[in-house]
Every structure is written in C-alpha cells, then in structure tokens.
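User: My instructor asked us to take a sequence, write out its structure as tokens, and then describe one feature of it. I'm not sure where to start. Here is the sequence I was given:
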Amino acid sequence: MYYLDLSQKISFAECEFRKFITGERHITRKWDKSVLLLVFKNALYFEEDGKEVCVPESSWYIQRDNLLQRGNVGSPAPEYFYIHFDGKYLNDTEYTETTLPISGKFDMQTIYPLVKELYENQNDIKNGTLYGNIVFKYILLKIKREFETTQNGLAYQLNEYILNRFHMSVTIKDISGQFGYCEDYLGRVFKKQFGITIHQYITHLRIQKAKQLLLCSTKSIHEISEEVGYTSHSLFYKSFLKIENKSPQQWKDENRSFMSGSDMGNEH
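Assistant: Let's start with the prediction itself. The structure tokens for your sequence are:
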C-alpha cells in the first residue's frame, strides 16, 4: 500500500474540472506528475500499472507519477476534479499522522468550495503558485481528517454488516460494492481495528455457527455447510479442518460423545 508523504515537499502544478460523456475512456499515458482525482458524480474507471481501478462517487484517488494509465473500458459519465502535483510516497508502511492513503472518501460539501477556490485562483500571475500550494495542502489535510474521523466508524459498520450476512454467500467484492470503497482499503481498515482480515472473520463466524449446528441439530453436514454460507462443501471441509484440525464429522462425533458422557455423569 502506498501513502503520500505529507512531511515531504508537495508542489501544486495545475487543476481542472472534467466531465466525461457516457462510455468515454480514460486517456492512455505515463505522466511525470501525480494526479489527485476527486470524483463528484458517478464513477471513473481506468487501469493503472496493469491493475483495474474504480473511483466511486465522493471518493478520491491519487495516480502516482510515471505509472502507465489506460482506459480499457468506458466510464458512466463521471464528473470530477483533478489536481496535478509533485509529491513523494512511502510503501509498506503504517498509516501515520504524516501520511495520506492514495484512496478514500471525502465530503462533497467540505471539499467542493476548496477546489473551486483553487481553480479560480490558479492563474493569478502574482500569487497563483504560492496560494495554490496553500489551498492544495489544506485540501489534503481536510480529506486526511475526514479519513481519520470515518475510519473507526467504517470498521464497526463493516463488522455489523458481516455479522448480519456471513451465513450468505457474501464476498469481499460484494462488501466493496455495498460500501463504495475498494477491497484493499476496506481490508486495511478492518484489520487495523480488529487485528484480523475480513476473510478470516467471515470464516471464523461460519465455523462457529457450524459447530453450534453440528452439536444441536439433526441436519447433515452438507446442509450445515450451505446454511452457514458455503456454496462448496469441499471448501467448508477445508476451512473446518484448517481451524479445528478435525473434519466436521470427527469434531461432531467427539463432541457429541463428550456431551453425552457429561450428561450421564450429572444424572448420577
């Protein structure tokens, strides 16, 4: 994961409002500037360094300099604002008070007046560059503060969403579509808060529910695997074996035998 290093020099270059027609594609290019994209309406699609990127409405994304971007598919008429700038990045590091993730959500009412101010004053011959740097850095700090405010709340929203749906065939891709954030970002937010990946958490909930059903119901193992959200019986078997070091049937036999023995001991 890359972060913009706010402790290093960041220089504003230029900015512009942009609107695609339906189906228009992102330009294919390598650019020597970084680009902050702020999407106001719909979503912008492009490929960056061979990886597909979707920037949803009310989201920001930073295209790092000297990466190949191309529009392999059209976008659904996005309206957005872009800012060209020079900056430095950190990789394989933790989020800190001096770093900004390359993607996230922003509040339209807070950010729009600032980008309008930046746009209207960028061509001021006397003060444009100096003022542009000040306003741009303020925009970066505002989206950083919004990110920090919403991050913890988002983690608990994810937790509640998963708790209510883990027994369905829900995937991280489904969750990403529901919340409007990329999968990597949601994974980082969740793991930072709970110390476990989303996939591990879903698996944990499913296996715990399966164990309850194995002990307390007469359903077959195949029926139980479907009830806790697995579309593949073999995947349920592998997940159960990995966590419990026993097959579902072995675990059921051993624990039902133990419970039966405990009940008999209590009667005497």
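For the description part of your assignment, you could build on this observation: The chain is about 50% helix and 20% strand. Try explaining in your own words what that tells you about the chain.
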